[in-house]
Design brief:
Oligomer: single chain
Shape: globular
Strand content: under 5%
Number of strands: 0
Structural class: mainly alpha
Radius of gyration: 17 Å
Distance between the termini: 20 Å
């Protein structure tokens, strides 16, 4: 897909699927909160069967451990628990309200990045109202 300015970016379902597959919960929380997708949207558009790709995370941890000169690398290690994709999706999408900050009242904010009823930023200019 291309942005309004012609920059390429992944389709929403492809991007979210990749975040689930790599168990990148931080980025997944951000995209879910930024787009305000629903649990039903994920059930219709994502492959939530099976488990996350733990092999990639183990490879990344091995790479981090190989850089012995920096003890802070230890804090960069990734969780390698084999998690079901559906569990990852449901935990993130059901946790939108828990990620609101103290100054974001639930009466106004749907997510930490979106007001209730705000326009979806993934819409093309022709689709926007």
């Amino acid at each position: 897909m291309r942005s309004h300015n012609g920059l390429p970016y992944p389709k929403l379902d492809v991007y979210i699927q990749s975040l689930i597959d790599t168990n990148d919960r931080g980025a997944l929380s951000d995209i879910v909160d930024g787009t305000d997708v629903t649990e039903d949207w994920g059930n219709e558009n994502l492959d939530l069967t099976g488990t996350v790709d733990v092999a990639w995370r183990k490879w990344k941890n091995d790479t981090i451990r190989a850089q012995k000169e920096d003890l802070w690398n230890f804090f960069s290690l990734l969780e390698t628990r084999i998690a079901p994709r559906r569990e990852v999706w449901e935990n993130i999408v059901r946790g939108k309200e828990s990620r609101l900050r103290y100054n974001q009242p639930t009466e106004l904010f749907a997510t930490q990045f979106r007001l209730h009823g705000s326009q979806d930023l993934w819409l093309t200019s022709g689709d926007a109202a």
